[in-house]
Structures are given as C-alpha cells and as structure tokens.
C-alpha cells in the first residue's frame, strides 16, 4: 500500500490488515482518532505506537484504546496481535478490514444517555420525604462505577459525572432523612468527595484536593465509618506526598492507621507512609513501613469501601508499585527498588486486570527507569520509560508528570547526564502538555 512499503511476511494479523488497506500508517492513525471521537472515546494513537503494535513489539494498550481498535478492525484484540499464520480470523459480523463509523449510532447513544440522565435526575430529586430502595441503589451504583472507572479512564471523561453525583448527594442530604438513609448518603458523599479530591490532585490543585478531602472526612464522621475515615486519610497522604508536603503526608498516613485495623487501607496507609519517609531520606523508617504493610495482609478483611472496587480498594500490585517508588528515592536501596519495580511493571502489563491503572503503571515504569539510571543502564532506562512518554495529554495527570520529572532529575544528577540528553528532551516535551493545561 502506498507509503507503507514492507519486506517479508506480516508479523501480526494487524500488520496484515494494515498492508491490505490503501492508507499510510499516518492516515490510519488519523482514522483511529476520528473513530475514537465518533465513539465518544478520548484517546489518540501515534503513528509510532501503531507501528509497534503492528510489528508485535508492543502489546500493551489502555482499555479505551482497546475498544477503539476492536471497533476499527471488527476483531478481538487478541486476534489482531496474534502472530500472522496466513489465515485471517473471522471478523465480527458486518465488518471487513477498517470500519468507518457513520456517526449515527453515536448520535443515537447520546440521546439515550441524555434521556437516562434526565430520568435519573427526576427520580432522585422528586421531593419524596422517604427515599426508596431504588433511589439508594441508583446512587450507590453511580458511585461504584466512578470508583471502578477512575484508575482506568482519562479524568476528562469522568469529571462531569463526578460533579453531578456529588451535587445529587448533597441535594439529597440537605433534606431531612431517616438515620439509616442519612448514613448511607453520607457514606457515598464521602467516597465521592474522596474521588474529587483525587481528581483535584490529578489536575495539580492540592488546595482544592485537600478541601474536598476535609469535607469527605466530615461525611465519614457523619456516617461513623472507620473504613471511610482511613481511606480518606490515605487520599490526604497521597495529595500531600505529591505536593511536596512529605511530613504532612506521614502524619496523615499515621493518623489513618488508627481507623484501619482490617480493610485494605491498613496496607495502603503504611506503604504511603513509606513513600513519604523515603522522600525525606529516612531509609530505616521506609523499610519498617514497607514491612508493616506486608504484615497487614495477614489480617485484611474487605469492608464496605473495599467492596466499591477500583480506587477504593488497595491490591497487592499497587503495594508493590508503592514500595518500588519509595525505595527508588534511596540510592542505598537501588537493588531492592529495581526488584519491586520490575515486578510492578510486569503486573501492570495485564490491562485486563481489575487492578490495572494507567497512573500506577506509569509510576512503576518511572521507578524502574530511575533504578536503571543509577545502575548505569541508560538504554534500559529509556526502554522502561518510553511507553509512559507515549501517553496522551488526557492521561498526563499530576502524579505522572511528577514521576517523569523525577526521572529527568535522576538523569541530570547521574554521570550519564550528557548521554541522556535526548531522553531528557523527550521528558521535557512530555511534561510541557500536562492534563491541567488542556482546554476545558
């Protein structure tokens, strides 16, 4: 096909399909972006990333990229990435090669979603003095969906629903409720406030983040829910850590531990404390906190917060990533950090896992890059961080930008600063377009 000259047999089914199309890779990448927009998905695909996917060099994709690729080619992703054996797998009914969306189904879907939102708004604010089970279940389902989606979807896709859900909960709480209903609403309002605190942090606004978190803690007090209190302290520790207020981060983590005897927050809080101690250069306190986090697994029992999933629960993969990031601050712990980081990177390659999170995946790669820079492995560091530098601006949340800047600093402080100049330039280009700078 014009502009895509190749030699040899296709390496993957995707590469075969691309060769069959009268388009260059640049044109296919543009088609991908147009289709994503028509499907209501906020994602881009660079020509370079497309080439790597087609060659089989890369197989890691975000869930949203996976959805658009599957819609574009009418085939499951595992079929597209399978080694080419000369036999084209059957396409999804009605699909042959690249699918060109008409836009009509998307328009219909928007009308359906608009009608559903209006119906839900009416049901929730119809002025009934006693909330029905259906209303409470609807709000709970909304909050659970936001918690589950948060680590895996760009924030720009979630913010409208986050705002709407918080407003709905506050509206419902402004009316007199039976005690058990008020408790449920305060619990859900606390979780939503915690998610909005994380959103404010992701947009590099720690003041707004901590304001949301304080209000969320008030909700947790009104719900009298220790698991929620502990989780919100974890959010406050996280926000303070990335804002450079590391001693405050330690205090929040330690304060939250009193409320979290059994939930997964009992793991999150000490390993969060470990990151802050490491940033302060205290290796002994870091290792002790990491060990407390590991020991906490022996008594973990999921609570009402954990059951929401997503950002509301803390799994072993996140624990490994946090330990990697903590130890990567400490030159004396480089070997241990490299081991944790390699394990985290491997775990986050599974994008189908409920624990998958693009932010933590990027953080794991940056920690691995830092350990390789310290070991003098510049090529390995570049390989580790390259996938992170391919993230679309919509995914360049505050924590990811900070991780990239840490790699930049590690390069500048190493004996390989001159040789790593090109990588530093790539990082600088990446951090020039963070999520917070995108037009609303």
Straight-line N-to-C gap: 39 Å
Order of helices and strands: HHHHHHHHHHHHHHHHHHHH
By secondary-structure content and strand pairing, the structural class works out as mainly alpha
Shape: globular
Helix run count: 20
Annotation, overall tally of beta strands: 0
What fraction of residues sit in β-strands?
under 5%
The helix content, as a percent range, equals 55-70%
Integer average pLDDT: 85
What is the C-alpha radius of gyration, as a whole number of Å?
A: 23 Å
Biggest pleated sheet:
none
Low-confidence parts:
1-6, 92-112
Task: Tell me about this structure.
The protein is mainly alpha-helical and 440 residues long. The chain has 20 helices and no strands. It has helices at residues 13-20, 25-38, 47-55, 63-73, 77-81, 104-124, 133-149, 155-173, 179-202, 206-223, 226-242, 246-257, 265-279, 283-296, 316-328, 334-347, 358-374, 378-389, 398-413, 421-431. The longest helix has 24 residues, at 179-202. Mean pLDDT is 85; it is low at 1-6 and 92-112.
Strand-helix topology:
Elements: H1 13-20, H2 25-38, H3 47-55, H4 63-73, H5 77-81, H6 104-124, H7 133-149, H8 155-173, H9 179-202, H10 206-223, H11 226-242, H12 246-257, H13 265-279, H14 283-296, H15 316-328, H16 334-347, H17 358-374, H18 378-389, H19 398-413, H20 421-431
Helix pairs in contact: 1-3, 7-8, 7-9, 8-9, 9-10, 9-11, 10-11, 11-12, 11-13, 12-13, 13-14, 13-15, 14-15, 15-16, 15-17, 16-17, 17-18, 17-19, 19-20
Task: Throw out a few tags for this protein.
mainly alpha, globular, TPR-like_helical_dom_sf, Tetratricopeptide (TPR) repeat protein
